[in-house]
């Protein structure tokens, strides 16, 4: 199964975003985490493009999304504003009502945290947000929050002193990932550690970790926005993610905050890339409810 993607760019304050469109139907934005750019979901998009206009993009600073001033810090607010502007542009291109209204956003890890920021900063932009294991320490009780931030800072320190080779094992432990033994679907597109992906990892750990660990979005603020924005927020966890993983606990905390039950998705923290076919089936089932 293939889906031909249309590649475009959008100029936003402080950056130029690269994004891709595939399929037709209601707008569905996939927001990755880590070094994930628009190509990271190459195996997932074709299984959604028969039902949705699927939008993927490079976050500012990653791959083809360039920064006007690379020395300027990137914030979670920047990312949320980028999403709102991107969805407004997609609405214009696809000939909808001229607004970004009622798009679906599926965010994974940092992408989920960005989606929660969109709900607060841009009420009404999203009709539904699926927040899969958001990396958002503020959702946790104080002791767990401190532990989560401490782990993230330790990964950043490992990267600063030993580069990617030192950071990768720390990230895998933090997220409960075992690349040697974790299962995947067959026939996945190879994702080698190219120089571009390594550069993205450097940016993610060196720059975006600061955006996450200094983010001031409070649970009360999020709960109030969720209640007034009309956005349906669906917390989600990976079926095989270890319950001790902080992002898993963030999803549970989000569900408790909103008075709902988390949706279970295939695989672990990176289940959307390890099990794209099963993830697409789950997404369609959840969004069809």
Automatic annotation (TrEMBL):
Chain ranges of the AB hydrolase-1 domain: 43-280
Keyword Hydrolase: yes
Molecular function, one GO term: hydrolase activity
This protein's UniProt keywords: Hydrolase
PANTHER family given in the database record: AB HYDROLASE-1 DOMAIN-CONTAINING PROTEIN (PTHR43433:SF5), HYDROLASE, ALPHA/BETA FOLD FAMILY PROTEIN (PTHR43433)
Full protein name: Alpha/beta fold hydrolase
Organism in which the protein naturally occurs: Kitasatospora misakiensis
Classification lineage: Bacteria, Bacillati, Actinomycetota, Actinomycetes, Kitasatosporales
């Amino acid at each position: 199964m293939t889906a031909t993607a249309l590649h475009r760019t959008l100029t936003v304050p402080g950056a130029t975003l690269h994004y891709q469109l595939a399929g037709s139907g209601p707008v569905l934005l996939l927001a990755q985490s880590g070094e994930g750019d628009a190509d990271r979901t190459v195996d997932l998009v074709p299984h959604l493009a028969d039902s949705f206009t699927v939008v993927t993009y490079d976050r500012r600073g990653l791959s083809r999304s360039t920064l006007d001033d690379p020395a300027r810090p990137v914030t979670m607010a920047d990312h949320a504003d980028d999403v709102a502007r991107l969805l407004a542009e997609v609405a214009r291109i696809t000939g909808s009502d001229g607004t970004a209204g009622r798009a679906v956003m599926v965010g994974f890890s940092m992408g989920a945290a960005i989606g929660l920021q969109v709900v607060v900063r841009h009420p009404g932009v999203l009709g539904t947000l699926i927040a899969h294991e958001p990396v958002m320490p503020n959702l946790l009780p104080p002791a767990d929050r401190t532990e989560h931030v401490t782990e993230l800072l330790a990964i950043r320190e490992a990267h600063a002193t030993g580069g990617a080779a030192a950071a990768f094992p720390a990230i895998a432990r933090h997220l409960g990932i075992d690349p040697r033994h974790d299962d995947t679907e067959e026939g996945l597109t190879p994702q080698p550690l190219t120089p571009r992906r390594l550069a993205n990892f450097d940016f993610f750990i060196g720059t975006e970790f600061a955006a996450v660990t200094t983010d001031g979005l409070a649970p009360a603020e999020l709960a109030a926005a969720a209640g007034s924005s009309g956005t349906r927020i669906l917390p989600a966890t990976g079926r095989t993610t270890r319950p001790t993983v902080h992002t898993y606990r963030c999803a549970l905390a989000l569900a408790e905050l909103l008075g709902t039950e988390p949706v279970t998705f295939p695989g672990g923290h990176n289940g959307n890339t390890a099990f794209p076919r099963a993830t697409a089936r789950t997404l369609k089932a959840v969004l069809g409810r």
